[in-house]
Specification:
190 residues; mainly alpha; 8 helices; 67% helix
Length: 190
């Protein structure tokens, strides 16, 4: 196992002045000021990513974002100089995958215990934004995560490949598949 180089903070240099690499190194030492600053710098982008991937209630999104940062703080010593935001997106993807597995299990138990079928959902007129949000939410997770990272978060193909630990060719194929699926779902409106 290769150990990363420890970074010693200069007493005259505050965490506010650290770049992302230094901030991750400070987080690896358990520095609460560094953890707070890392959270402040990246919470908005991680929240947007999680919200776009998980079209669920705000409380669940908040829980997933919090779990992402907890996992990031625990594994900060493993950060190896990639783009910190991409690294956080990778952690968020793993946290969401775990959540989905647990959620499926909870739903199976709840369904087995339910005595009556769920009530019919009332139909409503959705705006174009609602239709698009629903179509994105309906994408298979592997297609949705690439679409969200590239088209909505503005990440590069190489960055997404590194974040998801897949080849860049797979990223581009999934993006094309996601866009085509959305185009069909929206009746060619894209």
């Amino acid at each position: 196992m290769r150990m990363g180089k420890l970074v010693q903070l200069r007493p005259d240099l505050g965490v506010e002045e650290l770049g992302d690499d230094g901030l991750a190194a400070a987080c690896a030492t358990g520095d609460p000021a560094a953890q707070s600053l890392l959270f402040e710098r990246h919470v908005d982008s991680v929240y947007r990513y999680v919200a776009r991937m998980r079209s669920s209630d705000p409380a669940a999104i908040d829980d997933l974002v919090q779990a992402t940062f907890i996992a990031a703080f625990r594994s900060a010593g493993q950060f190896r100089g990639a783009k910190l935001q991409s690294w956080l997106f990778g952690i968020a993807s793993n946290v969401m995958r775990t959540y989905v597995r647990k959620e499926r299990s909870r739903k199976r138990v709840a369904t087995a215990l339910a005595e009556q079928p769920p009530p019919e959902h009332a139909h409503h007129d959705a705006t174009d934004v609602d239709k698009l949000r629903d179509a994105v939410a309906a994408l298979p997770p592997k297609l949705r995560e690439v679409l969200v990272l590239m088209d909505l978060e503005g990440e590069t193909g190489a960055s997404v490949a590194q974040t998801l630990r897949i080849s860049e060719a797979t990223v581009w194929r999934r993006l094309a598949d996601a866009r085509e699926t959305l185009r069909i779902a929206l009746g060619g409106a894209l």
